[in-house]
Amino acid sequence: MGIILFELALTFYFAATVISIVEVFKGSKESSQLMLIAAGLGFLIHSASIIYRYATAGHLPITSMHEASSFFAWCVVLIFFLLEYRYKIGIMGSFILPVVFVLMLSSSVLPRGIHPLSPVLQSYWLGVHTLLAFLGNAAFAVAFGIGIMYLLQEHYLKSKRLHGLFQRLPSLQILDEINYRLISVGFPLLTLAIISGALWAERAWGSYWRWDPKEVWSMITWFIYALVLHVRLTAGWRGRRAAILSIIGFSVILFTFFGVNFLLKSLHSFA
Amino acid sequence: MKILVIGLNHKTANVELREKLAFPGQKLEDGVFSLKGLPEVREVALLSTCNRVEIYACVGNPVSAADTIKNFLSSFHNIIRNDFETSLYLHAGSDAVRHVFRVASSLDSMIVGEPQILGQLKDVFDFALSKKTTGVLLNKLMKKAISTAKRVRTETRIAENAVSISFAAVELARKIFTDLSGKSFMLLGAGEMAELAARHLMNNGVKEVLVANRTYERGCELAREFNGRPIKFEDFPQELIHTDILICSTGAPSYVLMKDQMTRVMKERKHKPVFIIDITVPRNIDPLINKIENVYLYDVDNLQNVVDTNILERQKEATKAEKIIEEEVEKFNRWVSSLDSVPTIVSLRQKAEEIKDEEFEKFRNKFPEMDEATLKAAGYMATAIMNKLIHPPTAALKEDTEDRDELIAMIKKLYGINGDDNEE
């Protein structure tokens, strides 16, 4: 049952991603709607699969890489739909759904077994810490897609070749505004995630900070986004620079997420 | 009864001829009534714009009616037939329907996709309705022309992109700023194109207008016109710090704004985006300024390129529109043929038979004890009543009167016969 739900969600996301890529080359109102429907169905089924797994395992399904990737993807779709609801920018899907699909695909190839929760994770902090971290990172993931859209639209305007996606991409101001909003929501979430993690670490391992690779890389991420916000407010680093920084920031997050778990030895690699 | 279109437009006639044949002001009403008075014309409407003059009519015989209308044009406008006859086009039947739909959808316009014509056609329709010069056929034609035009507008992107330089400037501004209200705008110098663009920007609600001119007095004049604030020409770089959109039309022999200056301005305004339009030839703003982050500089050639691409884009959309129009013409033709009296008589009879059979069945079920002979007699009676009831409308339908179209439409309505009509 859980497997069926997961595979079904993956299939719908795949369909949505394919449509979203077709959308780039040959968009219409219908294809845009179809993409949203496919992604929406994927999201509902995905939610069901997470709830099902929660019920089966008895704890939040974010303790293996398989679960974490899947949950990360779920948070990204959630934010995507919130933005879609507010701004109605169909073409946004083409820049965000592929990220979702890649996350889901990596989740699907990772071992899927349900492990009993190790004693150190048995705490309400698990929910608090991970939810904050995932939602924050998902906001940054969407900011990454928006950043690419900004650079593309800026390129059209600067080069004065107004073909292709120019008409369907929203204005620079809107893209910059969305980027700013996402980062100013993501940043406090990340901050709280790190603080709650430190508090939890003190309870579980006896110290707030242990220079664990995950902790270090999260701190680097935190500094990057702190910088993004700081230079925007003080030096007016908006638009292009903000877009580039949010693309760099998300690359670091991806490394923190996958790289640290696979390449470095960390207290955070659980599976 | 046939629909006839007879007219001329910017493609078939020059301005001079169009002016001679136009119906401005009171002439429109006079023209419509004179046309309506012609013995062969049963319904009529008249469109007269600067690009076209067209007469829409419902006539018995299109060939002789066209001849009569040409004579009318000649005498009404005091012009010899030979002078304008070759410039006229003539469409009858479904060609006429197609023509009207294409005109309404702006496929026949000078600039494909420009929406003014639809409004003008609506006025024609309203005028004809209020003066009662049209009937079933033309009313339906006008209604369908308007709905077809709307369909074309929503299902294709024919009217989406700007096709004039000044609109292209506004469109670009929207791709940078979204909403122009709350943005401030500076007009540097004067000139027709610059002022036109300025007006479009104002219509889009820019918050503040600054006007700088080499001669301060002229600047003040312009500022009054735009409800703006005049500033000294030397001060304009300083004021750029608070300006989001700049239109430059100074006509100076050299650059009035250099890259270094602009870099400083950008720093002071914390890199908030600026859109600069340089309308002058030779250019008055250092083209290198486009390289500065968050500055978007467009000159006349750039804008013209945008316009050219958009026109090409519209032409691509026009082929999609033609398909929609074919569909709608097809639907309209089906409706017209359903108006014919024979199918109406057949469906009237069918409807009556249905009712009779249904009621007879009910009657038989209600009195199962009734014997064959009585039942037969009752059946005869029912048929006789039915025949008597449908005889007068059938007879009226068979007569070839002037208002037969209306009669058919009315009978269909009264008896609830739907035919092939897709009324929305």
Protein model, in words:
The complex is a heterodimer of chains A (about 270) and B (about 425). Chain A is built from eight helices and no strands. Chain A is mainly alpha-helical and about 270 residues long. Chain A folds into two domains: about 120 residues; about 150 residues, no CATH class. In chain A, helix 3 runs antiparallel to helix 4, helix 3 crosses helix 5 and helix 6 packs parallel to helix 8. The longest helix of chain A is centred in the middle third of the chain and has 36 residues. By secondary structure, chain B is of the alpha/beta class. Chain B has three domains: about 160 residues, 2-Layer Sandwich (Beta Polymerase, domain 2), CATH 3.30.460.30; about 140 residues, NAD(P)-binding Rossmann-like Domain (Rossmann fold), CATH 3.40.50.720; about 80 residues, no CATH class. In chain B, strands 7-6-5-8-9-10 form a six-stranded parallel sheet. A four-stranded antiparallel sheet of chain B has the order 2-3-1-4, with helices on both faces. In chain B, strand 6, helix 10 and strand 7 form a beta-alpha-beta unit. In chain B, helix 6 packs antiparallel against helix 7. The radius of gyration of chain B is 32 Å and the shape is elongated. The C terminus of chain B is likely disordered. Chains A and B meet through helix 5, helix 6 and helix 8 of A and helix 8 and helix 13 of B.
